[in-house]
Amino acid sequence: MIHLKKIRAAKPADLPQVIEIDALITGLRKPAYWAGILRRYGGRRPRHFFLVAETEEAVQGYIVGEVRDWEFGSPPCGWVFGIGVRPHARLGAVATRMLEEICERFRRAGVDKVRTLLARDNALVLAFFRSQGMMAAPFIALERDL
Amino acid sequence: MKLQQNTMIALYSALEFAADPERQISAAEIAAKYRVSPHHLAKVLRRLGRSGLLHAARGVGGGYRFAGNPKRITLMDVIELFEEVGARPAGRGARREEERALEQILAEIDETAKATFRSITLDTMIKLLARRRS
Q1: For chain A, domain boundaries
Q2: CA of A129: which chain B residue's CA is closest?
Q3: For a pLDDT cut of 70, what percent of chain A falls above it?
Q4: What CATH architecture does domain A6-131 belong to?
């Protein structure tokens, strides 16, 4: 278990660490993407959440989500569309704490369901969300080449 | 993906052992609980033992104990010991376009099933069972 100081809204000063964590996981640095996420989800908006989990030393993880109304025909619900934890901080309950926090904020925003969408081969993150009690949603993701 | 009876027995057994890793459980106890043939179950448990998931306990009563990490072992890890789960040959052998198209859909269903089994650990299943019972 990692001793977290706080889970709080992300600030501009957190971006380099968030970009670093994402790059450690995905192998890609995406500064423009994360600057856009901070613009749209940072701060204290009531339905948009970009949170970071920090210890005394550093940011250990991030989670991004929002409440969306009637997407895909679904009544308003919380969507988590980004989560990452420093590899060396895994198995320290960081992601669990961040998910609990964003779910609490979704509840306060008036919704009672949380959803996410993942690549089928992302076994690690799929297993995490499963371990948190998430089950298959009544949706099927589709795509085609353009 | 349709699971064979042996695979289902292996999954029940793995969950039974993983729920209490310190406990030594006899084959007879599991056979009675899930109403399966002890002979059938013995073969399944030997296979789980050879894979390293179970320790065979010697001495009075015999039986097995869990030897893995329930937070790391997925349902697919158990299933793969008993089923051929390689990629479905996409339309190979199918001569008509209709057959190939249907094979593609069946492969899609298989991939979703496999991803689901890969994403669920024994620990997650045990928690799911606890929630269902409460």
Answers
A1: 6-131
A2: B119
A3: 100
A4: 3-Layer(aba) Sandwich (3.40)
Domain CATH for B15? 1.10.10.10
For the record, the structure tokens of A31 come out as 């500064």
Mean pLDDT, 10 residues at a time, over chain B (134 residues)?
Answer: 92 96 92 92 95 86 89 96 78 78 91 94 96 90
> For testing the chain A interface, which of B69, B73, B119, B128 should be mutated: the one with the most A CBs within 10 Å?
B119
> Residue A52 gets which letter from DSSP?
E
Domain tally, chain B? 1
Contact A131 B124 (CB under 8 A): yes
Tell me the per-residue pLDDT of A3-24, one tens digit each, with 9 for 90 and over.
888 999 999 999 999 999 999 9
What is the pLDDT at residue B1?
74
- Cβ within 8 Å, pair A127-B120: yes
Q: Which backbone phi and psi does A50 adopt, to 5 degrees?
A: -130, 100
Contacts of B74 in chain A (CB under 8 A): 123, 127
Nearest to A59 by CA among A82, A84, A28, A79: A84
CB contact under 8 A, A123 and B112: no
Distances (CA, A) of A69 to A114, A134, B106, B132: 12, 20, 34, 30
Q: How many whole angstroms from its chain centre is CA A21?
A: 13
Dist CA A45 CA A102 (whole Å): 13
- Within an 8 Å CB–CB cutoff, is residue A130 touching chain B? yes
The domain containing residue B22 runs over which residues?
Answer: 5-84+122-133
Residue B108 lies in a domain: no
B30 found inside a domain: yes
A133 touches chain B (CB under 8 A): yes
> Which ipTM was obtained for this model?
0.81
